[in-house]
Amino acid sequence: MSTPIESETTQVSRYEPFELPETGRLIGFSDAAFSIIITLLVLEIHRPQAAPGHLGAELLAEWASYAAYAVAFIYVGVIWLNHHYMIDRICKIDPSFNWINLGIVGTTALIPFSTGVLADAFREGDLADQKAAALLYALIAAMMSAAWIPAFRYLYRHPELMKPHLPRTVFVAQVLRPVIGIGLYAIAAALGWFVHPLLAVAIFVAVVALYAWTSQGIHAGR
Questions:
Q1: Of 211, 183, 201, 202, which Cα lies nearest the Cα of 118?
Q2: Selection from 88, 90, 86 nearest residue 161 by Cα
Q3: 25 CB contacts (<8 Å, ≥6 apart)?
Q4: Hey, how many other C-beta atoms are within 10 angstroms of the C-beta on 101?
Q5: CB–CB of 185/141 below 8 Å?
Q6: Which element (helix H / strand E) includes 49?
Q7: Residue 192 near residue 134, CB atoms below 8 Å
Q8: pLDDT per residue over 173-210, tens digit each?
Q9: Average pLDDT value for residue range 59-69
Q10: How far apart are CA 3 and CA 141, in angstroms?
Q11: CA 113, CA 129: separation in Å to the nearest integer?
């Protein structure tokens, strides 16, 4: 006859081991967030209040908003493609990776804000405003780049989260891209503050082009 302790141990041993959840909810949340972020970019385009007969000129005067929208749209699009590439190679998630993913989504959500501030500074502000806006944009963009590093490092340390056929080193080379981005944004911040903010904007555009050109998310289907 079994004792109460033996009976309890037997019941516990019948339970299945805890299984990590799949990626469905994380994908749904992240895709919805990216969709909202990319939609918010449109709200940063200033709608001119033109007098009769001056609408065409006022629309042309908003070139900074159009340029900022185009660059930011591509930027967020590349982020989403890279995020899709990463999550597509994961089969399970745990609470720690959920927090890391929130860091990526949260910093990306700041891009419409920094984009709008930068466009307003070049449309209506003086040189001091443009310098401050360039510094803000560089800081937020560097934070967004840095948010990817914990994700790649965590997946390397926890290969059980990835699909079985993939090596644990699949994301090792990806760490270099955000590191380069952080360095370029630091250079942009310094040049924009101490030399001229247009130099910072040129680097911002160059970084987006670099991320798009080297994006595994874009080249994944090739």
A1: 201
A2: 90
A3: none
A4: 23
A5: yes
A6: none
A7: yes
A8: 888 999 999 999 999 999 999 999 999 999 999 999 99
A9: 82
A10: 62
A11: 15
